[in-house]
Design brief:
The complex is a heterodimer of chains A (319) and B (241). In chain A, 30% of the residues lie in helices and 26% in strands. The longest helix of chain A has 15 residues. Chain B has 241 residues and is mainly alpha-helical. Chain B has twelve helices and no strands. The chains are: A alpha/beta (319), B mainly alpha (241). At the A-B interface, strand 5 and helix 3 of A face helix 1 and helix 4 of B.
């Protein structure tokens, strides 16, 4: 475990420090305990432990093949774990689905031809005991205008919105979204996340997988970085960026100053180049304050860490 | 489950292949076979004989169309989608079987009506009241066999099997030409097929004879066999989906 970085920060919620052994308390939406799933020699999920309290929006961030879709398949009971435990809303995934408490939006497929948008939403809605009103579902997903359209005539973005509508039709407590915006353009993506936020605002738990870092950064309360089938990092996007000390502060300074600047608060490395000194820091604020204190603020530039850099740093630890 | 059946019925009615194979073709073939080159007394008995054959042929075609659609549904991710709704998997299969029972009706009723209204088939009320239900209930083995195909095989394989089984059962079972013209070995083989029994039971009623118990037993045997096969295929598909 030495190469795995992990924090339990969860934006003011005190739940997430669980041991991940399938405690299944009332406040826990998802509890994965040392979960593994092997496909032959491939370890798609390899010792993954994760607890998600009710009400959180969590991003499962990882590159292709990191184990995101397998994890979602296990959470839905579509796959059987090789070992470890999966508990959803205090029970087995199948029970949560039967009770209409868990729903999912698949990455692709799931829409049958020769039906209309309205028919499909209406049908899925009727399989639940306490669904949302169909017009409300269509409105949330931005499909009111398309209710009469045949499924096979939808554009990629419209089909994706329909998948989302089908997932929220039953008003589930927990919704799993497998790369929900993979096929969408920038505007459609923004619209999608607005719908999703409206849903989450009603106290629902959302777990979505993505390899779009900005999405994790912008829309999740908590980011769980997955790599090689296990949790590589877990925290708010801020915490994850800090974890790998990636804010860069640069000032115009004599190269000889570099060694001195390296000892400033938060700084992890200093590099002189082209008459400037570039500092990598865990704590941009402290570093800048210290620079000001020593009168070294000259042409200062602060580049906040991109989550992407953090992500690369985190997932290359084992590489 | 009613909502599911309704959705499936709507889908199948919008499928041109179903409308053609399950209604237009059996009715057209029936009218052609009984009105071209058939004259005199033959024409009356042919109208009755072929009516049962074509109703059976159309019903089998519709049953296969319904079942093999499952393979496409799986490819489209629809079965996976259904598994993430509260609808229990067993209800999905039951719903699909009930849908099968409904989609065979247009062929059975269409050909029977064409017989009564256009071909002058005159039967006693009790004969009609036996023939139509026999054709309806007798379609169940084929519905189950088609479900098994749908769960076992991928879209294209299922479609090919659909056509092969449909035509094979029609020919060997004597739905296209009477078994009386078959060589002896083929007649023996035909007697064991589900399609022969399926048409033979109502046909005997139509000609005022008692249905053959042995034939009924063979059809019941196929019903059990295909039912077990469908159940096994469904369980297996559930593990792999």
């Amino acid at each position: 475990m030495t190469s795995t970085t992990s924090t339990t920060g969860t934006t003011g919620t005190a739940h997430a420090a669980g041991t991940g052994k399938g405690a299944g308390t009332a406040g826990t939406a998802v509890s994965l305990g040392d979960l593994t799933k092997h496909f032959g020699a491939v370890r798609a999920v390899d010792g993954l432990s994760l607890d998600i309290p009710v009400g959180q929006t969590v991003a499962l961030l990882g590159r292709n093949g990191a184990g995101k879709s397998t994890t979602i398949g296990l959470l839905l009971g579509l796959l059987t774990p090789t070992s470890g435990s999966v508990r959803v809303l205090g029970g087995a995934p199948e029970a949560a689905i039967r009770a209409g408490r868990l729903a999912a939006m698949p990455q692709e497929g799931g829409l049958v031809p020769r039906t209309t948008v309205g028919e499909l939403v209406g049908f899925v809605s009727r399989t639940y005991r306490a669904p949302l009103p169909v017009p409300e579902v269509l409105a949330t997903a931005g499909l009111e205008e398309l209710a009469g359209r045949r499924v096979e005539r939808l554009s990629g973005g419209q089909a994706q919105r329909l998948r989302f509508a089908l997932a929220l039709a039953g008003d589930p407590e927990l919704i799993l979204l497998d790369e929900p915006t993979a096929a969408l353009d920038v505007r459609a993506r923004r619209e999608f996340w607005e719908s999703m936020r409206a849903f989450a605002a009603r106290g629902r738990t959302v777990l979505f997988s993505t390899h779009y870092l900005e999405e994790a950064d912008e829309y999740a309360d908590r980011v769980v970085v997955i790599d090689k089938g296990r949790v590589a990092a877990d925290g708010t996007s801020r915490e994850i960026k800090r974890l790998v000390s990636l804010t860069t502060v640069s000032v115009t300074a004599d190269p000889g100053q570099a060694a001195r600047l390296e000892r400033l608060p938060g700084v992890t490395s200093a590099r002189a180049r082209d008459g400037r000194v570039h500092l990598r820091t865990r704590d941009g604020d402290a570093t800048v304050t210290a620079l000001a204190g020593m009168g070294a603020v000259r042409d200062i530039e602060v580049a906040p860490a991109a989550l992407e850099d953090a992500f690369i740093a985190l997932t290359e630890v084992d590489a | 489950m009613l909502a599911y059946i309704r959705l499936e019925i709507v889908r199948i009615l919008r499928d041109p292949a179903y409308v053609i194979m399950g209604f237009v073709m059996p009715v057209t073939m029936y009218l052609l076979f009984t009105n071209l080159g058939v004259t005199g007394a033959d024409r009356v008995s042919a109208a009755v004989y072929v009516m049962v054959s074509m109703a059976a042929f159309g019903a089998i075609g519709s049953a296969f169309n319904n079942g093999t659609g499952i393979a496409e549904d799986r490819t489209a991710g629809w079965l996976r989608m259904l598994r993430t709704t509260p609808l229990a998997p067993a209800r999905v299969v039951t719903g699909k079987a009930v849908t099968g029972m409904l989609v065979v009706l247009p062929a059975i009723c269409g050909v029977s009506l064409a017989g009564a209204l256009l071909n002058g088939v005159r039967l006693q009320a009790w004969q009609w009241a036996s023939i139509v239900p026999l054709l309806w209930v007798g379609s169940l083995p084929f519905i189950l066999l088609a479900l098994a195909f749908g769960y076992f095989f991928s879209g294209q394989t299922a479609t090919v099997l659909n056509i092969a089984a449909n035509l094979g059962l029609a020919v060997v079972g004597g739905l296209w030409m009477p078994v009386e013209g078959f060589p002896a070995w083929m007649r023996t083989l035909s007697g064991w097929t589900p399609s022969f029994g399926y048409a033979d039971l109502p046909r005997r009623v139509a000609f005022g004879q008692a249905p053959d118990a042995g034939t009924a037993l063979i059809l019941a045997g196929w019903l059990v066999a295909f039912g077990v096969l469908a159940l096994y295929a469904y369980r297996r598909a559930g593990r792999l989906a």
